[in-house]
Design brief:
- It is a single chain.
- The protein is mainly alpha-helical.
- It contains 11 helices and no strands.
- The chain is globular and about 60 Å long.
- The two termini are about 30 Å apart.
């Protein structure tokens, strides 16, 4: 960032800040991630720095984790507005908005967004987003549809394993544990919890 600023390259500086913000979000360092992503957002007034739905979605995710629901909604809507209508990754934005609606207790709105994203995925018009399936499972559990939750979380796990995106299992497996408990299979759920904690001990720094 310092090198980019020294050479007057504000676009590169903003891009690096956004990239670092996304990485810090992955490691759970939310306050630092938010500061860097906001620095990127402030740089949008400069020529050559453009809105990016991925960074907006990251800001929405950070604010959601920090309990700032209004902020999360604001960034999610900006993500939607900055994305092309024919972008195959529009499923990610639908999933991002669905998370906000879910945490706001607006389950019908969340379900409509998830159904829209799921239809895109099934019709091969959209990017497979494991978070869509994760929130389908959470929503189904919240409304007592445990079998639907089981199918959704299995869908997410199987796809991540197929694509070799192992690190993202850290976000999905806790939901799998919750589904197992809801199904009355607590012993299996507890075993997965133990495996997750053992896995964390191999990480530097820990990610759970």
């Amino acid at each position: 960032v310092d090198d980019a600023r020294k050479h007057g390259d504000l676009q590169r500086s903003a891009t690096v800040q956004a990239t670092c913000g996304l990485a810090l979000l992955r490691w759970g360092r939310l306050a630092e991630a938010r500061d860097l992503l906001l620095a990127w957002e402030a740089a949008l007034v400069n020529p050559g720095v453009y809105p990016d739905e991925i960074a907006y979605m990251a800001l929405s995710r950070v604010d959601l984790e920090l309990g700032n629901l209004a902020g999360a909604r604001h960034w999610a809507l900006l993500a939607r507005d900055s994305q092309a209508s024919d972008d195959p990754e529009r499923t990610k934005v639908a999933g991002c908005l669905a998370m906000v609606e879910y945490h706001d207790g607006r389950y019908d709105e969340a379900r409509a967004l998830l159904d829209q994203a799921d239809a895109d995925i099934r019709g091969h018009r959209g990017y497979f987003d494991y978070l869509v399936m994760l929130y389908r499972s959470r929503l189904a559990r919240a409304t007592g549809e445990v079998e639907q939750a089981r199918l959704a979380v299995l869908d997410a796990l199987n796809r991540l394993l197929l694509e070799g995106r192992v690190v993202y299992l850290l976000e999905v497996l806790p939901e799998a544990v919750a589904v197992l408990h809801a199904l009355g299979r607590s012993e299996v759920g507890d075993a997965i919890c133990g495996d997750l904690l053992a896995w964390q001990e191999t990480m530097d720094p820990p990610m759970l």
